[in-house]
Specification:
With 509 residues, the chain is of the alpha+beta class. It contains eleven helices and twelve strands. It has a seven-stranded antiparallel β-sheet with strand order 4-3-2-1-7-6-5. Strands 8-9-10 form a three-stranded antiparallel β-sheet, with no helix packed on it. A two-stranded antiparallel ribbon has the order 11-12. The chain is rod-shaped.
Length: 509
Amino acid sequence: MSAIYKEKASDLEFEQYREIRRHARRMQAGTPLLLQSVINSKEELQICTFWISQDLQQLRWTVQDADGEVHEVPVSNIVEVLEDKSDVPEMGFARGQADEQHSLTVVLRDSQGTSAMGLICATPEDMTTWREGLRFIVGAQQLRRPSPEPVPVPVSVATTRSPRVTRAKAPAFPARPATARRAQVTDDLSQRLSLQEETIGKLKQENTMLQEMMKRKDLTLAQLLRDSQTRSTERCNKTESTSRESDDHLRDREVTILRRKNARLKKTLKTKQQTIAQLLELLGKALKQQGVESSAFEEEDEKDDDDDDSDVLPPKIVETVKVPRRENKQQKKVVVSVPRQPVEQEPAESEASSEDIEQIAKKLERLERDVAGMHGDPVSLPASSSAPSSARAAESPSQARNACSAVPVRTAPNLSSNALSNLLDGMSPSLRSWSQGEGAVAVPPVPSSAGFDFSAVGGGPPGVRKSTASLQKLAEDMALLEEKKRRVEQLAKSLEPPSEDEDDGFPLR
């Protein structure tokens, strides 16, 4: 049991040691206290900061409103630390409702005798710290030195607080009247009360503002919940500012796209205008180069092919067709000799004439194919000569063969309808009458077999009729192309901007 008691005692002593150590550290850190002093026979309270030196040998303090002068008292001069437990009721409050005054009286010994110093603590913890800490330090100092003679204590302190001290010399801090002390405490408490009331008012205002904010927050949350339930997420997230920015961006994007399209269209229009100008220039050159001049003249037959012919053939019609070439711009003359009057054909030569006519038909068919596939490069076309038909036997076989002889002709570039009309005007009247009788339009795309009198051989062969139909179709296509060209020129004039260097004011990147 003794061991248990010793262990408990040691634990208690250790706890007391820790408590004293904590008090000493707080005293070394410093604590604001009220110092009661008498100046010019008036009792005043000064706010001071008290602390203990690190070696626990000096008690120091400074007045906060002063110039910062440090006052100190040796701990060895402290005789006793007394606690004032009297309650000071406030005005209008009963005892028990008022704050308890936490004050200490420190009895000091000096060269003139003894004096008392009153300290008022703000909290009970501060009073406990300074009371227990000073008592422990003073007790330790007294244990180290021999017990001195009894030190007189001030009369007021001796009569009211310490019965052991019977008398004292003139105190440096005389006892204060109770009424003045209570008035001072009342003033302090009233100031604290006013500060507390102001703080409470501010807190109430802040509380009211916070409550209003909470109400608005609840309303906002409820509105957002309703919006999320009734509308989609995109519409919920889309605000007025974002919508306006999106609309502006879309408008700028559309304007940019339209300006780029406008620039591309201007570029395309410029290219088309250049192409049209080149085509018009080329067409003018072609019309100028492809003017057809035809002249018909009669000349005597230099030599008769058959000596047995007693009939004298009239002079032959010779037509000259000038066909320009694009490459070297040279002209060739196609001379076709056609007898003006038919000659009787011997029965033995009918088969040869038929073969010649078939050859002419084949050549004209090839002409039709070449005309259909003509796109720009010149194609060599044979100009077929007319041969006498078996029905007309007024000409000798040799003359028929000479009449049916083919003369090669080089084609020129695509001719316009006016040039081709001029070319047709230079043909023989018999070919024009035959072409009109067949319903063909005498506007061939290439120089045809001008100067042939198909009436002398009983009308055109089947190949010639097919070629005439093809020429008619080609003439219609050329007329349609002329109409389209005219429309394109009108459209180009209508789409042409007032100035090619016109700037739209929006630089495209």
